[in-house]
From TrEMBL:
<feature type="domain" description="Glycosyl hydrolase family 92 N-terminal">
    <location>
        <begin position="437"/>
        <end position="647"/>
    </location>
</feature>
<dbReference type="InterPro" id="IPR005887">
    <property type="entry name" value="GH92_a_mannosidase_put"/>
</dbReference>
<dbReference type="GO" id="GO:0006516">
    <property type="term" value="P:glycoprotein catabolic process"/>
</dbReference>
<keyword id="KW-0732">Signal</keyword>
<dbReference type="GO" id="GO:0000224">
    <property type="term" value="F:peptide-N4-(N-acetyl-beta-glucosaminyl)asparagine amidase activity"/>
</dbReference>
<dbReference type="InterPro" id="IPR000560">
    <property type="entry name" value="His_Pase_clade-2"/>
</dbReference>
<dbReference type="Pfam" id="PF00328">
    <property type="entry name" value="His_Phos_2"/>
</dbReference>
<feature type="signal peptide">
    <location>
        <begin position="1"/>
        <end position="20"/>
    </location>
</feature>
<protein>
    <submittedName>
        <fullName>Putative alpha-1,2-mannosidase</fullName>
    </submittedName>
</protein>
<keyword id="KW-0106">Calcium</keyword>
<dbReference type="InterPro" id="IPR012939">
    <property type="entry name" value="Glyco_hydro_92"/>
</dbReference>
<dbReference type="InterPro" id="IPR050883">
    <property type="entry name" value="PNGase"/>
</dbReference>
<dbReference type="InterPro" id="IPR041371">
    <property type="entry name" value="GH92_N"/>
</dbReference>
<dbReference type="GO" id="GO:0005975">
    <property type="term" value="P:carbohydrate metabolic process"/>
</dbReference>
<dbReference type="GO" id="GO:0005829">
    <property type="term" value="C:cytosol"/>
</dbReference>
<dbReference type="InterPro" id="IPR008928">
    <property type="entry name" value="6-hairpin_glycosidase_sf"/>
</dbReference>
<dbReference type="InterPro" id="IPR014718">
    <property type="entry name" value="GH-type_carb-bd"/>
</dbReference>
Amino acid sequence: MRKQAKLILLLFCLTLTAFAQKSSEQMGAIYYVYPEYKVGRFTPVPDGFVPFYMSHYGRHGSRWLTSDARYEWIIEQFSDEDNLTKAGKETAKMLQIVWQQARGNGGKLSPIGARQHEEIARRMALRFPELFSSENEIEAFSSVSDRCVKSMQAFCRGLDDDQRKRKVEQHADSADMTWIAYKSPELEAWQKTVHPPRRLGKERFISALFKDPSRVQDAEKLMTELHAVASDMQDVGLKLDFYQLFTKEELRDIYEQNNLRMWLSNGQAPDNYGVTQRSAVSLWHNIKAQAERALQGNLAATLRFGHDTPLYRLLALLGPDNLSDEQTDEMDEVIPMAANLQIVFYYNPDKARMPLNPQQVIVKFMHNEREIRLFKVRSLDVGPDGKTGYYYRWDHVLAYVEKRIANAEAQGHMAILNTFVGTDYAVTPAMSRYGKGSEKHGQTLPAVLEPNGMTFWTPQTRDGEQKCVAPYYYRDEKLQGFRGSHWLVGGCTQDYGSFTVMPLMDSLRLKPADRATRFSHTDEVSHPDYYAVSLPDEHLKAEMTGMSHAAMLRFTYQKAGKAYIVVNTNNGYGEGFVAVDTARNCLYGCNPVHRIYQGWGEKAGFSGWFAVVFQVPLQDYGVKDGVAWAAFDVSKGDEIMVKTACSFVDMQGVFNNILQEIPHWEFNDTRARTVDRWKAKLNRVRVFSKDKAAIAKFYGALYRAAFLPRAFSDKDGRYPSFAGSSRIVQHSMGNLGGKPLYRRAYMDFSMWDIYRALLPLNQLIEPAANGMLQSLVDMYDEGGWLPVFPCWNSYTSAMIGDHASAALAEAIVKGGRNIDKEKAYEAMRKNAFELPDAEAYREGKGRRAMQSYLKYGYIPLNDTVPEAFHSHEQVSRTLEYAYDDYAVAQAAKALGKTEDYQLLMARARNWRNVIGPAGWADGRWANGKWLKNRDLTTRVKFITEGTVAHYTWYVPHDVYGLMGAMGGKKVFTDRLDRMFRDSLYWHGNEPCQQIPYLYAYVGQPWKTQQAVRAILDNEYLDVPGGLSGNDDAGQMSAWYVLSALGFYPVCPVSPYYVIGTPTFDEARIGRFTIKANGVSPKNCYIQSATYNGKPYTRNYLTHEMLTGDGLLEFTMGASPNMDWGSKPEDCPPDLMK
């Protein structure tokens, strides 16, 4: 406890030392007068270059308070003389003196403010005489605000002295406000939410001025307004000291609050998700446009005069090294009165002539007349300090800013996407008809995570690791803690290797039900990189950010008292442990993992290890009833920060994961790095639309599609060998910069779901896609068989089919980089042709009911498939195996395995053996006789999680063959129509999800357009109950992503994607662009299309197109064009020919 006290005292002293360097005037922050300029030496200009253009933005100079009404309100608070103390009466007198000067001047430029701009202009002209002695044009633009106009006029007077006599064309037009002082609606909405609290109270201050503080109308407002008046005195030259009303601590407290408010509202704070930078884009475009004029010649300078916030937002967009995205900027240094940004343009007249191109131009940035560096742009020179210099190629700057704009857009997508979608009972139309049990939930999490990271850092409302029970449900009213979860998101499975951390106040409660505490969704903030919630009964705010293996939690206490933090495993077998390590200042533990499905309840051969490390020393601690706890004495405003991590290997892995991912105690830095991971992910698909709600829904789906498969290896590449072995595996990839590199292992492939859309989506946008699939090959190496549904690091034989083979085949057919193709084919072939022995089969290895399938060409009803979690389902298995055989055949063809190809292609027709004489899927006995089922809409045993009407359509590789088996194109089309007319279609069931696209095969793509748009609009809602069933590891969401872009892989292993209906004005997938002119919810029908400028009538796309450099442009309308895409040659190819 003494150590903690010493640490707190040291931090306090360091804080005081830092702020001791700040004068009272500086702590006026944005009111601080422009600092007295000190002449310094600038970095020499590169040889041969001379300045030819100046781009300038200046904040107005010092001014009076922004309105007379503000003064009047303050004075009114002192009108009751009987309630004033002696200090209060003296303050009232000073206010009257100020008011005599201020009346009628509210918001106007002061004489000091005018002089500031005159002096800045003179220094600019002296420093760059080439610009201001030429005959080239100089233009000045001002905000329509009077103080900005006066600042512009003063600046121009400074240029127009006796030597230069330069006339400047001046503009103050309301039309220019769209860029010179633009504030977007989303920025205005954000700023209304920014209300940072102060640490100190107002009681001392108000009591010093008023005998009865309760009679003061708004004490907090009065305190901050008097601080504004105190700061304003330096702007107007009155020798009155209002600062003496405040203690040094109060001044510092208000200063910090004002800095934080401005940083959150206009700076690079991670909390604003780039909204400030996006609001600066129009100003940047003006700067760029004027620079383009200057490159043509005859323009010497563009001068702009506006306000503090647009300038600060412009700086935030540029990202200079004197601003921070991790901690609060100091406004007296960034945007004091008359703050400015100057961009000086140079060229080499010996090597270039006007007009210039950007490659021939270099620029230097000066902030408040001091050289600044841009964060990630390579300079042409080296600075005096030996670091990167200050001169940049203009084309490099343009590219850099465009990238920052794209990143700001991606951050905006993170801000508006709804992480709660899928956490409540579904409210979609199809769910009310077909869903049952856990299928009625999306089963998702509002988790903080790194895309495809190991651990999902989620709030917890349900304890334990129970099958079909997610850790969080939106309808729950009490929070139990914050979990490091390995939940198979979106399914009816269970968590494993998880642990929970819970902060409590005043009383130590160990059981989850006892420590559950009320919370409100209005107090929740949830984004992919950050979660926060206020817990009123615990008197604290909890915040969480995290990466793949490690996370940080910050608890801020709203009252003094005893704070407890408890940690427990969620093991349901009474196994594992928690403990205290005072040497490492942490609580730690182990949660052994058990299998489910095949081998249910058996130990999986590995555990979830974890630690919760505290920033401050433990004061008190203990372990009781399987729960570890630590206790601290806290004061109001105190923070307790913890770092936590997990490993599936050992405690060494836990602490190394912390060291690698979060080596410090910087919460915002950790958050910023998680944001960077998400920006990279979301920027791989960029969509543009006037419908912001559609953009939010799209990126919400992309978020949910980035949970699984999960990273399984530690940061050092170690992971437990697949299928219960005690061996630890590590795959070396050589060295980089002297540091060893290891291949990341992945786990939890919900294969029956994700091979349909999620993995094909990854093939298009995810560089690590084949690295994930290589993990399947590694599982074959380690376990002897390619797994069917690998989860919990085990063979499970859950669900049906052999879709690990299908996914590997797709990767090989579509390029196969970063994957061992020969080993992958060896694994696929073994599954397709060999039978495991009885023990291996019991363990979940090999295809289920493979002996029957090979013998009969289908799985007869006689074979109940007992060694499978999903028994029976014979018809569905046959249909899925036929597709898997086709997929492996394509891999065999790509790798030159001709004999295998022919055998597998013959088996790919086995689907015909379960389509009965009536043209619907039907059960069949070993003797060949049909069950003759006529019930198309009720669940039956031989169909998986659905009905005959759903599964009959699952022949994705032979649609034309299915069409013939049904009785021809007309019957096929009529049955498709019935699926949608009679509401037989169930979007929540994966085998249905290609059905809307089958109209393309009969030359009626307009029906696909209609059906897909209806599903997008009705079966995906941006609310907690907005998913039409389980998200199933991201499959449902991936369907949305692909379909909203305008296409879908009916047969994923083929190189073809059927066109649906584009929903965005523009979408970019890598170098490929899709434009949809006139698109809207009503205008969902394609009227015509062009590809790279040429007419395009095919109703499908190719993988080569989507991964290449091209422009596909649609014209959309409200009525179907029944000619487009309708001819036989426009329809998808027959894959069986």
